[in-house]
Design brief:
Blueprint: E1 3-9, H1 12-24, E2 27-34, E3 45-46, H2 54-63, E4 68-71, H3 74-78, H4 81-87, E5 91-93, H5 97-104, H6 106-116, E6 123-126, H7 129-139, E7 143-147, E8 156-159, H8 162-173, E9 185-189, E10 194-203, E11 207-209, E12 214-215, E13 218-220, E14 224-227, E15 232-235, H9 242-262, E16 268-278, E17 281-288, H10 296-299, H11 307-315, E18 329-337, E19 359-363, E20 366-368, E21 374-376, E22 380-388, H12 391-403, E23 410-411
Parallel strand pairs: 1-2, 1-4, 2-3, 4-5
Antiparallel strand pairs: 6-9, 7-8, 7-9, 10-11, 10-16, 12-15, 13-14, 15-18, 16-17, 18-22, 18-23, 19-22, 20-21
EC number: 6.3.4.13
Pfam families: GARS_A, GARS_C, GARS_N
Keywords: ATP-binding, Ligase, Manganese, Metal-binding, Nucleotide-binding, Purine biosynthesis
Length: 422
């Protein structure tokens, strides 16, 4: 009998996690709560339980004999879902509430890094508008303004001039655009360099890094337009040398895992380090307490070992094995609803997307209309991923598919991976 695993979440990230679990061989059944109807095209079960309904999730696990849960998104982690599972005698892969603060509070993460000499941008934290504005005017631009708490990846403004930074502070303190997330703000020095994402499986004291990837946060080609949750990604990132990745593992990931354990908030789950390769070496932009989205959709397809077996080993206190395909490039592009991220226009019809065995479609913001057709129901709609020998090959392949689709009501970037070809 194989394992039964519950994945919690509803996006393309959770689709990729569930698909990777299915591929491994040790899992008999994967259900995603709440999931989305696009996942069902892969034979993945879904159950209409909200990720915020901890009691119903616990009942579902117990009533249906599930072995463990994988918590995908940040909100249930920060809300203590893993703690509630543990209290009910259930296993879940993800950090508890105390450890999830590394994402839930920018200030917590910054103080941790400061205490342990982990390289990151210089910063200051404010809980009122006037001193924050005074700091910005004194410091000048470029400068980075971050809402302290969770803002769905949209609470960060990279301000190239002082006016933009002040407007971002007004947004947070006067308009309360991010609600409680903006009760505090972190203002950081701007760092110059290419960004990359380094995710690791962590068991509290040890960690197993994954191949690095690069996300594209801006909505439009050439890194123009507003920040989004991510418009596409690729892995590996050839312009980031292995020596920089090795340095990041030793100066950032290792001391962070150790610091969390030493301070009584050990981290188990996926630690996401959003990094930048500066002239002074890699530095931390942010930590997340879970898989990145869309990076997961290009990293997990490279996994050649059994994902569920590796996570089960961690949950059972054993040593996991994770192996990766290092020979091929994976690259993927988000199709987003018109108006994303600010004024999303829902309802676009989802075309049938032809893919080969080296490609996959991961669904995010989709629902079914009364005729049973898939339609866009959110900002990011789906993610088309492919693998190929080179970045150029992968770009050509994925865009040959997307450019031929009827994409009325949706848009996408045409240059995912472009920084690798410069």
């Amino acid at each position: 009998m194989g394992q039964k695993v519950l994945v919690i979440g509803s996006g393309a990230r959770e689709h990729a996690i569930a698909h990777a679990l299915q591929r491994g061989g040790s899992v008999e059944e994967v259900t995603v709560a709440p999931g989305n109807p696009g996942m069902e095209l892969d034979g993945i079960r879904t159950t209409h339980i909200a990720e915020s309904n901890h009691a119903a999730l616990i009942d579902f696990m117990k009533d249906n004999g599930y072995d463990w849960a994988f918590v995908g998104p940040e909100v249930p982690l920060i809300d203590g879902l893993v703690d509630d599972f543990a209290a009910a005698g259930l296993k879940a892969f993800g950090p508890d509430k105390a450890a999830a603060q590394i994402e839930g509070s920018k200030d917590f993460a910054k103080q941790l890094m400061e205490r342990h000499g982990i390289p990151t941008a210089k910063y200051a934290t404010f809980d009122a508008l006037d001193p924050a504005v005074a700091y910005v005017r004194e410091h000048g631009a470029p400068i980075v303004v971050k809402a302290d708490g969770l803002a769905a990846g949209k609470g960060v403004t990279v301000a190239m001039d002082v006016e933009t930074a002040v407007a971002a502070l007004d947004d947070i303190f006067i308009d309360h655009r991010f609600g409680n997330a903006g009760a505090k703000v972190v203002i950081e020095d701007f760092l110059e360099g290419q960004e990359f994402s380094l995710m690791s499986f962590v068991n509290g004291t040890e960690f197993w890094p994954m191949p690095i990837s690069q996300d594209h946060k801006r909505a439009y080609d050439g890194d123009k337009g507003p920040n989004t949750g991510g418009m596409g990604a690729y892995s590996p990132v050839p312009q980031i040398p292995q020596s920089v990745v090795d340095e990041a593992i030793e100066t950032i990931v290792r001391p962070t895992v150790k610091a969390m354990a030493d301070e009584g908030t050990p981290f188990t789950g996926i630690l996401y380090a959003g990094l930048i390769a500066t002239a002074d070496g890699p530095k931390v932009i942010e930590f997340n307490a879970r898989f990145g989205d869309p990076e997961t959709e290009v990293v997990l397809p490279k996994l050649t070992s059994d994902l569920a077996a590796g996570i089960s080993a961690i949950l059972d206190g054993e040593t996991p094995e994770f192996t990766w395909d290092d020979d091929r490039v994976t690259l993927g592009v988000v199709l987003a609803s018109d108006g994303y991220p600010t004024n999303v226009v829902k309802g676009a019809k989802i075309p049938t997307i032809p893919v080969d065995e080296d490609s996959h479609v991961y669904y995010a913001g989709v629902s079914k209309n009364e005729d049973g057709e898939l339609v866009a129901s959110s900002g990011r709609v789906l993610f088309v991923e492919t693998s190929a020998p080179t970045i150029k090959d992968a770009q050509d392949k994925v865009y040959a598919v997307i450019d031929a689709l009827p994409t009325d009501g949706m848009f996408y970037r045409h240059d995912i991976g472009f920084k690798a070809l410069k």
